[in-house]
């Protein structure tokens, strides 16, 4: 498994050149497509409960970092998201997928299991990507890769590179106000077809205004309760339920 790091390249345009060229070659059919995944499971035909069961085996953060808002996407929510994207919109199978702020790879791995042509997870945290890499090896996935990078600093070199972007971005709390919109804007630049994302329900009106400003069609697919476990010392309760929207955005160029 190749771990691509932004520090390995001398300039911003060159950082993702190898990845971009590989994905474009994959789409044009000039290189062999990776096998979908595992030797033991027919991944494309997984039922919802089977997908959730598989995702329960994905290792998550050992020491989550508060400043990065590292909360893992729960297997149940991840499975429901991916199953909807796959079965209702056909935006996973044989598609190129980007997972922004991928963490330990829950959404990337689930997409790979559902027959994605190729998945790329992008995250700033090397520790999370180490766990992601271990998960990929455990599941024997051949259609997943990862890039260590700052999503907030990605250049236009990745525009229209992926068919679909799927993400559970930071919600923009604590010291990260507005980062959810930075992730969304970047995702819309990268995606050719659609972006699927989780956002706090309390921010829906603001997101609707931004979508209108960017001339992007926005559809709330489901209202979920995101169960955040007590991952940090300051948490007084065992878990907290947060109302979250699962949203589909039809990708267009973001002009401003």
In words, what does this structure look like?
The protein is α/β, with parallel strands linked by helices and 256 residues long. 32% of the residues lie in helices and 23% in strands. The chain has 8 helices and 8 strands, in the order E-H-H-H-H-E-H-E-H-E-E-H-E-H-E-E. It has helices at 12-15, 17-28, 48-55, 75-89, 106-113, 126-139, 179-190, 204-213; strands at residues 3-5, 96-100, 118-123, 144-148, 162-167, 191-200, 218-229, 239-250. An 8-stranded mixed β-sheet has the order 1-4-3-2-5-6-8-7, sandwiched between helices. Helix 4 crosses helix 5 (106-113). It starts with a strand and ends in a 6-residue tail after the last strand. Mean pLDDT is 81; it is low at 4-15 and 30-41.
Spatial order of the strands forming the largest sheet: 1-4-3-2-5-6-8-7
Helix share bin: 25-40%
Calculate the terminal CA-CA distance, rounded to whole Å: 36 Å
Proportion in β-strands: 15-25%
Low confidence ranges: 4-15, 30-41
Overall body shape: globular
List the helices and strands and how they pair.
Blueprint: E1 3-5, H1 12-15, H2 17-28, H3 48-55, H4 75-89, E2 96-100, H5 106-113, E3 118-123, H6 126-139, E4 144-148, E5 162-167, H7 179-190, E6 191-200, H8 204-213, E7 218-229, E8 239-250
Parallel strand pairs: 1-4, 2-3, 2-5, 3-4, 5-6
Antiparallel strand pairs: 6-8, 7-8
Helix pairs in contact: 3-4, 4-5
